[in-house]
Design a protein that fits this description.
The complex is a heterodimer of chains A (310) and B (49). Chain A is of the alpha+beta class and 310 residues long. Chain A contains 10 helices and 11 strands. Chain A has 2 domains: 159 residues, no CATH class; 100 residues, no CATH class. The relative contact order of chain A is 0.10. By secondary structure, chain B is of the alpha+beta class. Helix content of chain B is 41%, strand content 12%. Classes of the chains: A alpha+beta (310), B alpha+beta (49). At the A-B interface, strand 1, strand 2, strand 3 and helix 1 of A face helix 1, strand 1 and strand 2 of B. Strand 1 of chain A pairs antiparallel with strand 1 of chain B, so a sheet runs across the interface.
Chain lengths: 310, 49
């Protein structure tokens, strides 16, 4: 196993505990704390909704008491641990892979979500503050987000909790890791009907971002394989578009998401390889800082800005 | 987060919020983990390494 790259879901060390709420000891609850690398940890608390009947509680009673407790605990743990992201959601029995997704800075929006500075740097604080239904700034530069629907709807995994969120993600051309998209991207005809000017802007933005997504996919599909199991992807783009006040942040997010997805797939297929992203000169400083965060702590990923052509 | 002391502090915060880490597990007979006294939580963390 020497030299093998630890998978994003593997841990160096794990602490697991059964956890009891004394007034409702029949509710199944587990706490796990995992160290995945020197700097990377995750904390998970699993509460089995289905055990509410064993405690003699109605689903409404269960939701009311646990939602309040976990909401408060989320604030407490955020303050203590300052994570990249904290969330409180209902995954049912689905394997979601939050640890790997957060390591790759994929977007996750739960019923309650705490976005740390690592996420505000990537997605933009203003953009995160604009996610429906409500969001508020945190004192460390992060953002706390809440969906408006009830905890009962969360317990029932009601996807309409996110009804206001989907159009917001679509407008930014961002696909969330959680909630999982359930349908292909669609235009927003009702908006176009009510506001032609706004719709024209949206359409133009959408066309531009869709074209960039296609270009990124095409460029990143090519891999140069060098000696020593090095794999290289090259991106040489018009970087001035990445500082444009209207779509610059969206373009940067798209690039990072595209690189993350490609890197994840590439390193899963070639676990002993290293992956280097080579960028043409002129990469904006903001994008370089975001890339620094993406590759930090992962010795198998790096990026470099190539010297200019004379 | 850096090591066991941080883990112990997180576990204590969880306990203070009303969720008590315990010994044992849930069974189909209705048994559940036995909450560990608050002052013994650092020891519990050390034993779970």
């Amino acid at each position: 196993m020497k030299g093998r790259r630890p998978g994003p879901s593997e841990a160096l060390e794990v602490w697991r505990f059964g956890v009891v709420r004394p007034e409702q000891p029949q509710i199944f609850c587990n706490l796990h704390i995992s160290q995945r690398s020197e700097q990377r940890w995750d904390i998970g608390l699993l509460v089995a909704t289905s055990t509410h009947t064993k405690a003699g509680l109605s689903l409404d009673e269960f939701c009311a008491s646990w939602a309040t407790l976990l909401d408060t605990l989320g604030d407490e743990l955020y303050e203590r641990t300052r994570p990249a992201l904290g969330t409180f959601t209902n995954t049912r029995a689905e394997i979601v892979g939050f640890a790997a997704a957060i390591a790759r800075r994929r977007l996750i929006i739960g019923w309650r979500t705490w976005f740390g500075p690592a996420y505000t740097d990537l997605f933009g604080r203003e953009w995160l503050l604009g996610i429906p239904d409500t969001a508020s700034p945190l004192d460390d530069g992060g953002v706390a987000h809440r969906l408006a629907g009830s905890a009962r709807r969360l317990a029932e995994a009601d996807r309409s909790l996110y009804s206001a969120v989907w159009p917001y993600l679509e407008r930014a051309s961002i696909q969330s890791h959680w909630p999982r998209p359930s349908r292909p991207r669609t235009r927003l005809p009702q908006e176009a009907e009510t506001d032609h000017s706004n719709a024209a802007h949206l359409e133009r933005d959408d066309v531009e971002l869709t074209a960039l997504r296609r270009d990124l996919r095409d460029l990143l599909a090519t891999t140069i394989v060098l000696a020593g199991n090095q794999r290289v992807k090259v991106l040489d783009l018009d970087w001035s578009a990445f500082t444009d006040p209207r779509l610059g942040s969206a373009r940067q997010s798209l690039l990072l998401h595209a690189f993350n997805e490609v890197a994840e797939a590439e390193l899963q297929s070639h676990p002993d390889a290293t992956l280097r992203l080579e960028l043409g000169q002129g990469v904006p400083d903001g994008l370089r800082r975001l890339l620094d965060q993406v590759v930090a702590g992962d010795s198998h990923m790096s990026y470099v800005v190539l010297p200019g052509h004379n | 987060m850096h090591g066991e002391d941080d883990v112990a502090e997180v576990v204590q915060r969880v306990a203070r919020a009303g969720l008590r880490p315990g010994l044992g597990d849930w069974t189909t007979e209705g048994e559940h983990p036995e909450p560990v006294p608050f002052e013994n939580l650092p020891q519990l963390v050390a034993e779970r390494r």
